[in-house]
Amino acid sequence: MQRRSHPIAAVGDYESVLPFQAIGLKQYAIDDPNDEEGLRRIMLDMINEKFAICLMTEDLYQRYEQLIGELTHDEALSVIPIPTLKHSTGYGTLQIRNWVERAVGIDIFANK
Description:
Layout: E1 8-12, H1 14-17, E2 26-29, H2 36-48, E3 53-57, H3 58-63, H4 65-72, E4 78-82, H5 91-104
Helix pairs in contact: 2-4
């Protein structure tokens, strides 16, 4: 039986993606958060290599959400925003909450 692998990657500033090396994820460090073409190349590389999940720091995800949507619209790659090592804006949590609400029809995270 052939084993199929759908790798996971982490994209963001060097300090935030380095810890993911310990659990075997491929890291893509972005030195310049304004380098849209660099991020585009990384995203296309992940799509071509059949990555399943991309954990991306919230700052990059929020800045390039439209580009990410365009590149992954018809692809199997899921991009999930995560906090940076230094701080969280809460954007990643909000995105996941919205996705779950759209999928199940209610906000299961709502405080009652």
